[in-house]
From TrEMBL:
Binding-site residues, heme: 84
Mode of membrane association: Multi-pass membrane protein; Single-pass membrane protein
Note describing how the cofactor binds: The heme is bound between the two transmembrane subunits.
Pfam family, one: Sdh_cyt
Subcellular location: Membrane; Mitochondrion inner membrane
Summary of subunit composition and partner proteins: Component of complex II composed of eight subunits in plants: four classical SDH subunits SDH1, SDH2, SDH3 and SDH4 (a flavoprotein (FP), an iron-sulfur protein (IP), and a cytochrome b composed of a large and a small subunit.), as well as four subunits unknown in mitochondria from bacteria and heterotrophic eukaryotes.
Keyword Nucleus applies: no
Name recorded for this polypeptide: Succinate dehydrogenase cytochrome subunit 3
Lineage: Eukaryota, Viridiplantae, Streptophyta, Embryophyta, Tracheophyta
Cofactor(s) this protein requires: heme
Keywords on record: Heme, Iron, Membrane, Metal-binding, Mitochondrion, Transmembrane, Transmembrane helix
């Protein structure tokens, strides 16, 4: 009884839509941000056990040379934050009844992609040069 059928035929039938893709990415970025908040909280608690004063904490934070992996993770977190925040504003507009026509949904989605790129690039550049 070995039949060569796909397990999920609906995945091959439907074409991915822009709004559904953004919705899935919104959920993924939210889960990623929640995970990063948890890890940063645990990191701060661990540092708090090592040094009990704010001066020691800041001295440790600014004296450690973080590896490129950590800086890449911070930049990825900034990108996820910019995307999640921008897409959240778009959902708030939809909840209020604005921009519900199909042509406007496509334009707002393209504008969202530009906003995310602009915000993330600005934050990364500011992080590097400031």
């Amino acid at each position: 009884m070995n039949i060569n059928r796909p397990l999920s035929p609906h995945l091959t039938i439907y074409k991915p839509q822009l709004t559904s893709t953004f919705s899935i990415l919104h959920r993924i970025s939210g889960a990623f941000l929640a995970t990063m908040v948890l890890f940063s909280l645990l990191f701060c608690l661990e540092i708090g056990l090592i040094s009990f004063t704010y001066g020691n904490f800041y001295q440790f934070s600014f004296s450690v040379n973080f590896p490129k992996f950590i800086l890449g993770l911070v930049n990825l977190t900034l990108l996820a934050l910019c995307y999640h925040m921008s897409n959240g504003v778009r959902h708030l507009w939809w909840d209020l009844g604005f921009f519900l026509e199909f042509s406007l949904i496509i334009r707002i989605s393209e504008f969202l992609a530009l906003c995310v790129a602009f915000l993330a690039l600005g934050k990364i550049i500011r992080r590097i040069y400031c």
